[in-house]
């Protein structure tokens, strides 16, 4: 129920803001608005405003529209002709079209700023031991490294305030097929050095658990056993929740990352390999013989003890003042918009996986997860979806606002509007492209939820 409510609230808010942008600029330009609708289909609520606009809520809440007086849609009374959309100057018509995406963009900036103003307690970007053979190990990451900044080119650096900041930068670099430079220090913030994470090696792949293991960046955590699966391999060996692993086969275990990697590597070919564990339990040292089980995961056979390991990572409270928070909102929205456009370009040219596209099922799932996590995560989710809606609507497809802006650009350059015949053909092509995009996004949603990729 939380997922459904969070998704519907997000849809209603973002659609209302988008259409409000069109409505307000249309009224400011003297255009008569006939209907402001949230949703399509059967009208379930209606109210008429003082300016004669009919405000409606319809049964299918998957979009909305602002219907304006326009001579192309029917006969317009002579005394209302000046209020028709098609009679307004070109610059006003373009402003009305652009106002919807602009409203979503402004909303995203404000929501990102609100997240920065409210602040939140998040994991610190201090890293644990990377798995053997991972990108992090090849880059030279060591347990206790504190990531202070990231860069795509090693020249212009962006500060990292928390682990989510770092994870977002990694996701962008991987999706765009670029390497990511890390500026790290020791736990006290000294001894800065630069590392290069070869995320371009993972270009064209959809994010999954296996890819996260290949990257190998995880927060520093104590090698504690949090939970033991009943009847699992660890339970059979006598491992108990709360155990602190001191050594494996005589080798000291410094952190949870080292422990996870040691478990994964406990195999000889297709056969599991027994390990000798020394654990601290209630102030006593206990020696155990633990043999993992070989399981199928992500198309690979790996060793698993069926335990959850690691203490909660160190957390920091991150917040910003009014000006800094607003500027952070501007920067975040711009960076995300540029990344989205570049990613879509790479998908079209085959340089990035189309599995990066998400549809309504994934959005609904994220809405529920963020709502359960708290106010700040939900506001951050709303900001990202609002910005995505702005960028999507600015694409030069005839069914979208960006397509209509292309019509106006043509009219401005040529001095004549796009012919009705061409508009019909372009509308058909745009509708087909949008349907294919929606089908692909929905297919990706189903594959993710079913665990197929």
Automatic annotation (TrEMBL):
Q: Does the keyword Magnesium apply?
A: no
**Residue ranges of coiled coil:** none
Q: What InterPro entries does its record include?
A: PDZ, PDZ_6, PDZ_sf, Pept_M50_Zn, Peptidase_M50
Cofactor dependence: Zn(2+)
Q: Which GO terms describe its molecular function?
A: peptidase activity
Q: Where does the record place the PDZ domain?
A: 213-253
EC annotation from Swiss-Prot or TrEMBL: 3.4.24.-
Which CDD domains is this protein grouped with? S2P-M50_PDZ_RseP-like
Residues annotated as transmembrane? 94-118
Q: How does it sit in the membrane?
A: Multi-pass membrane protein
SUPFAM superfamilies listed in its UniProt record: PDZ domain-like
Keyword annotations from UniProtKB, A to Z: Hydrolase, Membrane, Metal-binding, Metalloprotease, Protease, Transmembrane, Transmembrane helix, Zinc
Location(s) in or outside the cell: Membrane
Query: What biological-process terms (Gene Ontology) are attached?
Result: proteolysis
Give the PANTHER family listed for this entry: MEMBRANE METALLOPROTEASE ARASP2, CHLOROPLASTIC-RELATED, REGULATOR OF SIGMA-E PROTEASE RSEP
What protein family does this chain belong to? Belongs to the peptidase M50B family.
Q: What is this protein called?
A: Zinc metalloprotease
From which organism does this entry originate? Pelomonas aquatica
Q: What is the lineage of its organism?
A: Bacteria, Pseudomonadati, Pseudomonadota, Betaproteobacteria, Burkholderiales
């Amino acid at each position: 129920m939380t997922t459904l409510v969070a998704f519907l609230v997000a849809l209603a808010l973002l659609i209302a803001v988008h259409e409000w942008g069109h409505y307000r600029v249309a009224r400011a330009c003297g255009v008569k608005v006939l209907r402001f609708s949230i949703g399509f289909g059967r009208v379930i609520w209606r109210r008429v405003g003082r300016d004669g606009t009919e405000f409606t809520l319809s049964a299918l809440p998957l979009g909305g529209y602002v219907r304006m007086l326009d001579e192309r849609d029917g006969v317009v009374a002579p005394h209302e002709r000046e209020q028709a959309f098609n009679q307004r100057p070109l610059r006003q018509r373009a402003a009305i079209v652009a106002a919807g995406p602009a409203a979503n963009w402004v909303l995203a900036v404000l929501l990102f700023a609100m997240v920065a103003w409210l602040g939140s307690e998040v994991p610190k970007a201090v890293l644990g031991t990377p798995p053997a053979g991972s990108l992090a190990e090849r880059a030279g990451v060591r347990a206790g490294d504190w990531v202070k900044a990231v860069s795509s080119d090693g020249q212009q650096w962006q500060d990292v305030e928390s682990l989510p900041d770092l994870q977002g930068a990694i996701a962008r670099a991987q999706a765009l097929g670029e390497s990511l430079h890390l500026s790290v220090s020791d736990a006290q913030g000294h001894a800065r050095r630069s590392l290069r994470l070869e995320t371009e090696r993972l270009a064209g792949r959809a994010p999954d658990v296996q890819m996260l293991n290949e990257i190998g960046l995880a927060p520093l955590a104590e090698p504690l056993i949090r939970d033991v699966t009943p009847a699992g391999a660890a339970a059979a060996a006598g491992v108990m929740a709360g155990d602190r692993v001191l050594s494996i086969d005589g080798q000291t275990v410094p952190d949870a990352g080292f422990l996870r990697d040691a478990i994964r590597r406990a195999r000889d070919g297709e056969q599991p390999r027994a390990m000798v564990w020394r654990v601290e339990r209630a102030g006593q040292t206990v020696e155990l013989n633990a043999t993992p089980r070989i399981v199928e995961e992500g198309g690979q056979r790996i060793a698993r003890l069926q335990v959850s390991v690691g203490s909660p990572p160190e957390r920091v409270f991150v917040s910003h003042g009014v000006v800094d928070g607003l500027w952070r909102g501007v920067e975040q929205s711009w960076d995300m918009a540029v990344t989205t456009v570049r990613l879509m370009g790479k998908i079209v040219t085959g340089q990035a996986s189309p599995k990066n596209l998400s549809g309504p099922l994934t959005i609904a799932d994220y809405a529920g997860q963020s709502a359960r996590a708290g106010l700040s995560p939900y506001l951050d989710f709303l900001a990202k979806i609002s910005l995505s809606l702005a960028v999507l609507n600015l694409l030069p497809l005839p069914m979208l606002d960006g397509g209509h802006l292309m019509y106006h650009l043509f009219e401005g350059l040529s001095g004549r509007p796009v012919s009705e015949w061409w508009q019909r053909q372009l509308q058909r092509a745009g509708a087909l492209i949008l349907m294919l995009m929606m089908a692909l996004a929905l297919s990706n949603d189903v594959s993710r939820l079913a665990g197929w990729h």
